[in-house]
Specification:
This protein is mostly helical. The chain is built from 18 helices and 6 strands. The strands form 3 sheets. Strands 1-2 form a two-stranded antiparallel sheet. A hairpin with a 2-residue loop joins strand 1 (about 150-155) and strand 2 (about 160-165). The radius of gyration is 30 Å and the shape is elongated. It starts with 17 loop residues before the first helix and ends in a 10-residue tail after the last helix. The structure holds arginine. Arginine (ARG) binds next to helix 6.
């Protein structure tokens, strides 16, 4: 095929068969790594220059050529190439620009350390945008929590009305989950921020390169410590898929809650028009497709993670071609996160609450049965007995078709006990740290907003935390 630039023809009497190319080539997807491939190559050329393998003039020519290759790609050229992979493409394009000198770029390097480096660079960008998107969502949730710190809603266990909480408290539960995810992203990103370049094919490079200096020039915190590991390790990729899966599992749970809250049955909230979908048949429908897709994608992301671990588990050291299949799950997962997170953030911002309906449901006095038992316990009745009394009262009220508090005083429950129990007080009493009292929630919402800000600062380029493990 025209212009194809294979990197390994020498020992073969014939080029690769069409059936092999179709199966073996990765250009159709690893072209997404072109910017990283060029960055890595520029850094390699410059290091070769610094350690005297290339002359200054050669280095300049190669670097300039590489930058032109990247610019041409940016401008939309080269899409019709039939290269084997992104590395062959870049080297081939460089050769078209600077001639045989292009062949010096690969001195002391292998596609094995090259692709491992490309992937680390790509992952660093993926971690950073993932982190920023999580913080946007956390910020939206914290803002809603601040505004709805005193909005009562029923809290559930087993999806049965349990005890009242506030909507703000619900928001902050997800803030905790997603801020833990954000921390995970940073930790994994910092652990992964090391440079495999200079590991060669597997045994290291025979050139006098300074790998620490090379690593620094690419923004890495350090060079990988072992060449066999350097070319074959994909832990960072697995961790990306894990953190993404766990995060999507959290978002899926949030989606599930919101699907319920916005259902006709609950009616606690309404989806913004711009973020819901209709039915081609049923004119009245307003559907939570966005939330259902988040839930669906969470399932698929978990599949990507388990598939990836299965890909790794039997591989002998060092590089094996199976590793070529590491990229697409990462690309797909990043695309999902990139679409899902902003959409969900917009939905959190735009969700319309039906506060009357929510607090009406929270005022269901079944939710106050715990409160009644606590009232008895406050005046000295052992809680186990108080629980029994409140339970009997609940059954009697149910049989009489009355509310728990409507039934006249009886069976160890005084009028004063009944008078001490109401929704507002139930909420206000949960004032210990982590509880749902409106005061606590307002305070926790402020803290959450500050944590988001601190997270942004710590992640900003040049911040001290950037290079912490
Ligand atoms: N396309 C390959 C990959 O993505 C590049 C590394 C090729 N190395 C090799 N030994 N065949 O993994």
């Amino acid at each position: 095929m025209s212009g194809r630039h294979d990197l390994w023809g020498g020992r073969f009497a014939a080029g690769p068969a069409e059936v092999l190319r179709r199966f073996n080539d990765s250009w159709s997807f690893d072209r997404a790594l072109l910017p990283e491939d060029v960055l890595g190559s520029v850094a390699w050329a410059e290091e070769l220059g610094r350690c005297g393998v290339l002359t200054a003039a050669e280095t300049r020519k190669i670097v300039k050529g590489l930058r032109e290759v990247a610019a041409a790609w940016e401008a939309g050229e080269g899409r019709d190439s039939d290269a084997e992979d992104v590395h062959s493409f870049v080297e081939g394009e460089l050769g078209k620009r600077i001639g045989p000198l292009a062949g010096k770029l690969h001195t002391g390097r292998s596609r094995n350390d090259q692709v491992a480096t490309d992937l680390r660079l790509w992952l660093r960008g993926a971690f950073d945008s993932f982190h920023a998107a999580i913080l946007d969502l956390a910020e939206a949730l914290a803002a809603r929590a601040a505004a709805e710190a005193a909005t009562p809603m029923p809290g559930y266990t087993h999806l049965k009305r349990a005890e009242p909480v506030t909507f703000g408290h619900w928001c902050l539960a997800y803030v905790e989950m997603v801020l833990r995810d954000a921390d995970r992203v940073r930790a994994v990103r910092n652990r992964a921020n090391e440079c495999p370049l200079g590991s060669g094919a597997l045994s290291g490079t025979p050139l006098p390169v300074d790998r620490a200096r090379l690593a620094k020039s690419l923004g890495f915190d350090r060079a990988t410590a072992n060449s066999l590991d350097g070319v074959s390790d994909r832990d960072a990729a697995a961790e990306y898929l894990f953190v993404a899966s766990l995060h999507l599992a959290h978002l899926s749970r949030m989606g599930e809650d919101l699907i319920f809250f916005t259902s006709d049955e609950a009616g606690f909230a309404e989806l913004p028009d711009a973020l819901s979908t209709g039915s081609s048949r049923m004119p009245q429908k307003k559907n939570p497709d966005l939330l259902e897709l988040v839930r669906g994608h969470a399932g698929r992301a978990i599949g990507e993670l388990t598939g990836f671990l299965a890909l790794l588990k039997g591989l002998p050291l060092a590089y094996d071609k199976d590793l070529q299949l590491d990229k697409e799950p990462l690309f797909r997962t990043r695309a999902v996160l990139g679409a899902a997170l902003p959409a969900l953030t917009a939905l959190v911002r735009g969700l319309k609450l039906n506060r009357d309906r929510m607090s009406g449901a929270a005022a269901d006095d079944r939710l106050l049965a715990t409160e009644l038992a606590d009232a008895l316990a406050r005046r000295g009745v052992p809680f186990r007995q108080a629980h029994e009394i409140a339970g009997r009262r609940f059954a009697a009220a149910e049989a009489a078709g009355l509310g728990l508090l409507e039934l006249p005083p009886s069976d160890g429950v005084t009028g004063a006990d009944l008078a001490s129990v109401d929704l507002g007080r139930a909420l206000a009493r949960r004032g210990a740290a982590g509880g749902t009292s409106p005061k606590r929630v307002a305070q926790a919402a402020r803290k959450a907003a500050a944590r988001v800000e601190a997270g942004r600062k710590a992640a900003a380029p040049g911040a001290g935390a950037r290079s912490r493990g």
